[in-house]
Specification:
heterodimer, A: alpha+beta, 54% helix, elongated, B: alpha/beta, 6-stranded mixed β-sheet, 7 helices, 10 strands
């Protein structure tokens, strides 16, 4: 048997003899590898499946919006446009629906219709369950909308097929039967969008809208690089045919619309995963360091009988390799399962079906790489020091072990008087091996700081949304009328309700803005009172709107959003024109201010309703009212809204749809809640590593201080006293880590809040430090400290006095 | 008139090993009277430490009865044993075994804390008194790492006396000390015996053993000589 074989045998026996330690390190490596592996599996599976599923629907390369709709003939005409391979049109429109009965309340629904649903070529909708295509008086509901529609129709999800809903057809009511479900993969789900989606036949479309023109055109081009040019040519052709073309969007068929958000989410989680792996590496450092300290006499003997540094290095490297390989083997199946589970959850949120569960070769490679490399990196220091120890140093080591207890920290703490002896022992023992303590504290503190940072991000998100909704959407409900109304008539009706605090008339529309440079930009126009109390602008330059603008030869003033103004090179006092289409005159405006709007579309522009009426040569017209109530909870909003609608209807004013602020908040919250849940999973993983780290440290301490335990037994310590000393030590470490957590959590919370804000809404969140999270973590860390010390403390108490005092 | 403080009656000790049971003590019987100063000698592996461990309750006999300070140790649980030992036996180790994170004074107070033998307020005063007895009062607030081997052993003796036990058991107490310091420790032991303590000391040092009134010689798990 050569030396290496002997070493392998020794390594295996060491691992087996110290099973609990082996288990601890293997578990720690496994948790770290799991953190990284899980994210890689999620990312790999989700990105691959998202791409494959998205490719399978033949996603459009160009999407053109023509609000008035295009006839079938003109649509066909686009097929001959240069560079166009395929064309398909859709009618996409919003209307409202309610349960089939007198009690149903109206809600918004998006309906889709297109010719011959069995011959789709672009953005293909896949039949899911029930009938396809929808017949006359039928609708096939997008599957993610089914639960919402079922709830609205007052039936169970299982009983939704066959149920009827009433749809508003331009003032008349038509009953449509839910005939089945369809799967739409080119848009976000109903939960995120806020209104359900359903497909109807062209016949139904005609009955609902009075025509069968398509207002959304999808193009597939022959050369993706040329799609901008092809889109421009198609637009020109449509405009030549007399159509007002709205937004033209270029899409990358290789990238799902949700991929960007997904990348940010997984990046944030990936960073935490790497951090978790690094923390698990600390435990390896501690363990190898302790192992070498414990076996220093063996190293001395090996060297005394001829082993060189390289051989000793290889001997202990084998141990590290075993930890890494075993930990990785434990982590791999878990990472596969949890990663696929997370991917499935996210895919569900995106309304995408994953392909069947399978291994991710990329994740396997990453896990093998980090699972073996990280333990080696973590153990490099102790391995190097252990292998280079001299025979003299090695054989001179005897006594109680576990650190001399003569470091400055212990000396400093020795001056602290008044502590009961057992607690003094616990406190000083905690700081006995400073390097080990430092790594354990770092692990626990980072786990805690991440936990608090996640809660802070959650609070900050909530506060940001509240601020935005409060500051920029100070209303409780948005009422939309079927037809234009006179604000002077409807405002007094609404404000006559005792719980309505204020109401404002607002007008929203899309327009084409021609900039001073001659460039044309599609913008969303928000027109409201110049002295609005519902929208608080955040001006970065210039001023807000004033009364009387656009009259008496004063130029009409417009405030634009800063971000796209910067991008387009718009300056203050630039003259611009607005074309609202539909025969409205092109009006002249001047830019008077730049606004920072965090929610509304980037290309939002603000004008006063008064000046808009003036330039459009109309008076006193609106289709929407924003209303603020005395109470702001969802139940109150619903109740008062129903009462206000009754009031209006009694006065002959029909409300077409309502949008409650609580619903808007719910939609926004549902998006970021996913992120918070994922971040929380990662912080729990880190807390777990922290707990394992502490348990590992306590186990090492018990092992190293077995003689001390024997001595204490010999001088009268019973099991309770021994357990109390080790539990106390664990509590002391947990308490110190808590203080460190407090110090670390503030900058980490700020950094995470900022990063998440920039990633998701392109601006830092309004920072809120999660103070309740501190108390929560204190309880958790003391619990972790207690749990982590139970097994080592009981081991200590059960040590045989004779064996613990023996020198061999 | 003296009474027996230690009585080992036909004590057999066997350990389970991979090669089968290994008998370390072969029916040893030993009686030590109150106030005796006894040396236990024998070559390595003779069983002397095992025999001493029977006396301190650190180990238990496979067969036979161990009675120390009026208590039969066979039936005590580990916790009962620890508390009994803390009150009745002062153990002194070869390598002193002071807890390194407690200063000398605290090391001496610790057995009183464990066994709750003196009112908390009196413990410090008593520990200082004991340290003064072993001429270590001026080192009371130093950590063990900051004092010499001889000083550590004297501190360890003070610790052994903390609960005023009738019996002191010392395992190679001078084995790690130079001869001059060893002499001082021995003188201290003699003084303690003079004050009524019973002291059993395992030693390799023939010279020290010869200075004791009674030497128990152990070999191959049996007592060869030294029985009254």
């Amino acid at each position: 048997m050569n030396a290496l074989q002997t070493i392998r045998l020794k390594t295996l026996r060491d691992l087996w003899r110290n099973r609990s330690r082996t288990l601890m390190v293997v578990l720690s490596v496994a948790v770290g590898v799991l953190g990284v592996g899980m994210i890689v599996v999620t990312w790999d599976i989700l990105t691959t499946d998202l791409g494959r599923r998205y490719a399978a629907i033949n996603p459009a390369h160009v999407e053109i919006s023509v609000p008035a709709g295009v006839s079938e003939d003109d649509l066909r005409g686009l097929e001959t446009a240069p560079g166009v391979v395929q064309v398909q049109g859709r009618a996409v429109f919003s209307t409202r629906y309610r349960a089939d009965g007198p009690e149903g309340t109206w809600q918004t629904i998006d309906l889709i219709a297109f010719p011959d649903p069995t011959a789709q070529v672009i953005n293909i909708l896949a039949p899911d369950e029930g009938a396809w295509p929808p017949g006359r008086e039928e609708m096939v509901v997008e599957r993610a909308s089914l639960s919402e529609m079922a709830a609205a129709a007052g039936v169970s999800v299982n009983g939704a097929c066959g149920a009827s809903v009433v749809v508003d057809a331009g003032g008349r009511e038509r009953s449509l039967t839910i005939a089945g479900t369809v799967h739409q993969q080119d848009a976000v789900t109903a939960a995120v969008r806020g209104s359900p989606v359903a497909v109807v036949s062209l016949d139904t479309l005609v009955k609902l809208r009075g025509h069968d023109r398509m207002n959304t055109i999808y193009l597939i081009v022959d050369d993706l690089e040329q799609r901008a040019e092809v889109a421009a040519a198609a637009r020109e052709r449509l405009e030549r045919a007399g159509y007002d073309v709205g937004q033209v969007t270029l899409r990358d068929p290789a990238v799902h619309p949700a991929q960007d958000v997904l990348d940010v989410l997984l990046l944030v989680m990936g960073i935490l995963g790497v951090l978790a792996l690094a923390l698990s590496g600390f435990l390896v450092t501690n363990t190898i360091s302790a192992l070498i300290t414990q076996q220093i006499d063996q190293i001395g003997v090996m060297k005394a009988i001829g082993a060189d540094t390289g051989l000793v290095l290889r001997a202990y490297s084998l141990t590290v390799l075993a930890y890494g390989v075993l930990g990785t083997l434990v982590a791999m199946p878990l990472a596969g399962r949890t990663g696929y589970g997370l991917a499935r959850y996210l895919a569900g949120q995106l309304n995408i079906d994953l392909y069947p569960d399978r291994a991710s070769p990329l994740a396997v490679a990453v896990m093998l790489g980090v699972g073996i490399a990280v333990p080696f990196i973590a153990a490099a220091g102790p391995l190097w020091r252990g292998a280079h120890i001299t025979v003299r140093e090695a054989i001179a080591d005897y006594g109680l072990g576990g650190g001399s207890g003569d470091n400055r920290l212990v000396q400093g703490l020795d001056r602290v008087q008044g502590l009961p002896r057992v607690w003094a022992l616990a406190v000083r023992n905690a700081v006995r091996v400073p390097s080990r303590l430092a790594l354990t504290l770092l692990t626990l503190a980072l786990g805690g700081a991440t936990f608090i940072a996640v809660l802070s991000t959650d609070s900050s998100f909530g506060r940001t949304i509240d601020n935005l909704l409060e500051g920029q959407y100070g209303m409780d409900v948005l009422l939309a009328f079927r037809t234009e109304q006179r604000p002077s008539q409807v405002l007094p009706i609404v404000t006559s309700h005792g719980e309505v605090v204020r109401a404002e008339a607002w007008y929203f529309d899309t327009a084409v803005m021609r900039l001073a440079s001659g460039q044309e930009v599609q913008v969303t126009m928000f027109a409201g009172p110049h002295d609005t109390q519902f929208y608080q602008p955040t001006l970065s330059a210039g001023r807000w709107l004033q009364p009387g603008e656009g009259q008496a030869r004063q130029p009409a003033a417009v405030v634009v959003n800063r971000k796209w103004a910067d991008e387009e090179g718009v300056q203050l006092d630039d003259p611009v024109t607005l074309d609202l289409g539909d025969g409205a005159p092109v009006s002249e405006w001047v830019v008077v201010g730049f606004n920072q709007d965090l929610v509304r579309q980037q290309t939002g522009v603000f004008v006063s309703l008064e000046s808009l009426d003036h330039v459009l040569k109309r008076t006193d017209r609106t289709v929407t009212l924003e209303v603020r109530y005395a109470e702001h909870d969802l139940a109150s909003q619903r109740r008062i809204t129903a009462e206000v609608i009754d009031l209006l209807e009694q006065n002959g004013v029909e409300v077409f749809s309502t949008l409650m602020m609580s619903d808007i908040r719910g939609q926004v919250v549902s998006l970021y809640r996913i992120l918070i849940i994922f971040l929380m999973v990662m912080s729990v993983l880190m807390a777990l590593i922290g707990g394992l780290g502490l348990m590992g440290m306590m186990s090492i301490n018990v092992l190293e201080r077995s003689k001390e335990i024997g001595v204490m037994r010999a001088i009268g310590a019973d099991s309770r006293a021994i357990v109390q000393i080790f539990w106390g030590e664990s509590m002391v470490i947990a308490a110190i880590s808590f203080i460190l957590t407090l110090a670390l959590s503030l900058p980490l919370s700020r950094a995470m809040t900022r990063a998440v804000g920039m990633a998701f809404i392109d601006t830092p969140l309004s920072f809120t430090y999660a103070a309740p999270g501190i108390a929560c973590w204190l309880v958790l860390v003391l619990l972790i400290g207690s749990l982590a010390s139970i097994a080592p403390a009981l081991n200590a108490a059960n040590l045989s006095v004779r064996e613990s005092l023996s020198y061999e | 008139m003296t009474h027996p403080l230690i009585q080992l009656d036909q004590v057999i000790k066997e350990y389970e090993t991979g090669a089968g049971p290994l008998r370390v003590l072969h029916g040893v019987s030993l009686t030590v009277q109150e106030g005796e100063f006894v040396a236990v000698v024998g070559p390595s592996g003779s069983g002397k430490s095992t025999m001493i461990n029977m006396v301190t309750g650190i180990d238990r006999p496979t067969e036979g009865v161990v009675t120390v300070a009026g208590a039969c140790l066979n039936g005590l649980s580990e916790n009962q044993m620890a508390r009994w030992r803390g009150r009745n036996v002062g153990v002194i180790f070869q390598f002193f075994q002071l807890l390194p994170t407690l200063n000398v004074l605290e090391n001496v107070i610790l057995p009183m804390d464990f066994c709750n033998t003196y009112p908390p307020r009196e413990r410090k005063e008593r520990a200082l008194h004991l340290l003064a007895q072993v001429e270590m009062a001026d080192q009371a607030h130093k950590l063990p790492g900051a004092i010499s081997g001889g000083q550590k052993q004297r501190a360890a003796i003070a610790r052994a006396l903390a609960n005023d036990p009738p019996l002191l058991v010392a395992d190679e107490p001078t084995g790690n000390l130079d001869s001059k310091t060893a002499d001082r420790v021995f003188d201290l032991f003699a003084e303690l015996v003079g004050r009524g303590k019973t002291l059993v000391m395992v030693t390799h040092d023939r010279e020290i053993a010869q200075r004791l009134p009674r030497v128990v010689q152990v070999q191959d798990g049996c007592i060869l000589a030294g029985q009254p």
